[in-house]
Amino acid sequence: MNRPATPQPAAASAPLSGVALWAQICTEARAAIQTEPLLGALIHGGLLHHDNLQSALAYRFALKLNSGEMSEQLLREIADSAYAQRPELVSAAEADLRAVYERDPATHRMIQPLLFFKGFQALQAYRIGHWLWTEGRRDMAYFVQMRCSEAFGVDIHPAARVGQGVMMDHAHSIVIGETAVVGDNVSMLHSVTLGGTGKADGDRHPKIGNGVLIGAGAKVLGNITVGRCSRIAAGSVVLQDVPPCKTVAGVPAQLVGDAGCTDPAFAMDHLIEVTGIEGEDGG
């Protein structure tokens, strides 16, 4: 993967976080303004005007989700309260940011997800909605869910539990149901659904293990478990449990082999080795 000659984070063995990560973001932001002065106001307002990542995240949340029904100021106050009371939300955002940078070959700088990628921004909005839900402010959590769906095309129920280091690439039309659980370091592409199978109440949505890779358009339905470090092929409909470290594909999905590597969510390899499809003449 070729990256431009812009300042880059430290090696994966020592991932940037906290003050160091924010310094890297600000360095990239200043360089971006030099390259594209017309974005100066956007970059200053979204990044350089802030003292830390949580302030920038709160600003972005309020800017993107405000409407005639809820002002930017009120949403900013909600986000500021969330980050003040739950510092782990900032740590999760840092892990999500690193996940996008490390796994998406279209991401060359840390500032890209913060400013431009709706998958990252929708995930941070969900995290605030989930905080509201756990605080008993469920109607406000539903409002955040609604606005996130309207603004980003991503619909995550605020009761769902999503780990950190999650990447939602492109993210359009992702749906995650109320009782779904998504582990740490999961990667999923657009049009993924983690849904139910009918009108049954209770625990009815999938449980996705750590390190799972879910391909574009995959549907995982029902209260089933997808084991850690497994792969779900694009377009698959998964209706049964998936063992750890395996690959499933098809409609309905069937086991087609091992995961192919120890960390499929990091490798982002969606190819499945298929044999026997050539004609008898070898063509």
UniProtKB/TrEMBL annotation:
Protein name (record): Serine acetyltransferase
Residue ranges crossing the lipid bilayer per the database entry: none
Protein's organism: Paracoccus isoporae
Gene Ontology CC, one term: cytoplasm
Keyword Acyltransferase: yes
Keyword Iron: no
Family: Belongs to the transferase hexapeptide repeat family.
GO molecular function annotations of the record: serine O-acetyltransferase activity
PROSITE patterns assigned: HEXAPEP_TRANSFERASES
